[in-house]
Structure formats: C-alpha cells, structure tokens
Amino acid sequence: MTNQTELLIAADLDPVFIARVTADPRFDVRLEPVRSENELAAIIGEAQILVTRAYNKVTRRVIGCAPRLQLIAQGTSGTDNIDQAATRERGITILSLPGENANAVAELVIAYMLMMTRTLPFYGREVVRNVWFRDDCATRHEMHHHRLGIIGLGQVGSRVARLANAFGMRVQAYDPYITEFGVATRVATLDELLANNDAITLHVPLTTETRRMIAEPQIHTMPRGSYLINAARGEVLDQQAALRALEQNHLAGLALDVFDPEPPDAGFPDDPRLVLTPHIGGCSFEAKAAIGDKLYEKISRWIGERC
Q1: Residue 270 sits in a domain of what CATH number?
Q2: Is the sign of the CA dihedral 268, 270, 271, 277 positive or negative?
C-alpha cells in the first residue's frame, strides 16, 4: 500500500498492540526490540513513528539518526528517557500513558510494606534453612500500626493512599502541585512528612527538581527504624545513602524496584531487610493488555488528526 506510515516498535510490547497495529493498513510496521542506545540509533532509520518503553534511551543522537521521525509513542507513564529538548526542536510529538499501570505499581508497594513490616523475606529464608523460629513474631506489627508518608500524590500515589487507608494506616502526603488529597492528609513540607512517618514511599516523576530529592540528610530526617520504598525512578533516591542507612540500622527495611543505573552495575548486600525487584512495578497481565489497547488508540487518533 502506498503512503503508509513507517512505524518502528523498538521495545517489547503487548501482543494486543502488535496485532492491532500490524493489521492496520495505514502502517508499515517494523518489529525490532532493542535495549541499548547504540542499537536504537542503528535501526531507527526512516521511521516516522517510534514505539518505545522506559528502558529505550531516545537521546539527541538517536533523534538525529531519524530524519523522518514525527511521533514517539511510549507505553509507560514517565518519559524521562526521551530527550525533551531535542524533540521540541524538531517538533516531534510524544505520547505516553499516564496512570495505565498505576494500580499494578500501587499493589507492589503494598506488597513491599507487608514484606518489610512482617519481615517475610527473613522468615522465608529461615524455613528454607530448616529453621523453625517463631519466638519473635509477636514483635512484628500489623499495617495499621504504621504511619505512611507518600511523596507525590499522582495516579500511583493516590492509589497507594487508598489501599493503605483500607489497611487502617494513617496516611499523609507531600505534593506541592495538587490541591485534592483524598484520603491522605496534606503535609506542607517534605521534612515534616519525613520526620512524622515511619514508612515513606516515592511516587514522583524524574525532573531536575526531584533528582536526588531523597539523599542522606532526608533519610536521616526519618525516624530510626523506618521503611523506605522507591518505585518511581532510580535517580530520585540516593541509592548508596539508602543502603548505608540500612547497614547502619537507621532504616529497618528498604525496597527498590528502580535503580540508577538500570540494570544496576554493582552488587547488593545479602540482607533480608532489602527487597529488590527488576523494575516490574507497572508490569502485570492486566496493565500490559490495557496499555496495548490504549497505545494503539492514541497513535490511531494522532494519525487521524493529521489527515
């Protein structure tokens, strides 16, 4: 068919999306999932639409290798992997899917809290070692005992607040960019939130303002014995400072789904208080299927508006 739009899928996308876009005669589809910037720069060529995920580094160099590029469609909420200045200079549109995987991330955060507050990884290791030790289980607390502080009350943060509220937790939130806090109590400053909660979870996008917003001074503002969760972006947290605080027992638990860099280039301590997952927060069957449908619909709408 003539006048087809060349569409490059450079990431692992849901079969729903691939099936729909491949069946659409408006698109000439190339399916070439890659991971590195070099690989993406090498294959982007004459693509007019680039479909990515957060691990694809769409740098100025990559954009410079794509003279016909008009649209970057990303199947995630954040777009910090894309050089925004370079796209603005070229007039390239960016589409993303804020909120589509929010429930999956929120459920993972609640799972982290249960794992850490009840020390489930520790007990699991003991059973594997044939150690049947229950003497200290009554020193662990139920969720409603803990005070949760949420940094960033967007799509994910607000869902975390509602789920935590259902467990009976007292929920506070810091977000200077919203006015409706729902079940969470608004806190005016970040330091106030950190000082008055024993579980902190991060749900902010990566910007110049949020980069390393939680570093050593902020971690030590938290009460001794607190829990810290990062399922936002790795660069929001000073990861090494958090690991030191865990080693020094200032933190009682640390859960990380995101890292700086990704994948991590250094090892981690063998510590059951440290819960690690490979950036799977937004990845569930339901989230991926919904993202496949919504991403196709957004691209299709963009094409329709240009005709």
Answers
A1: 3.40.50.720
A2: positive
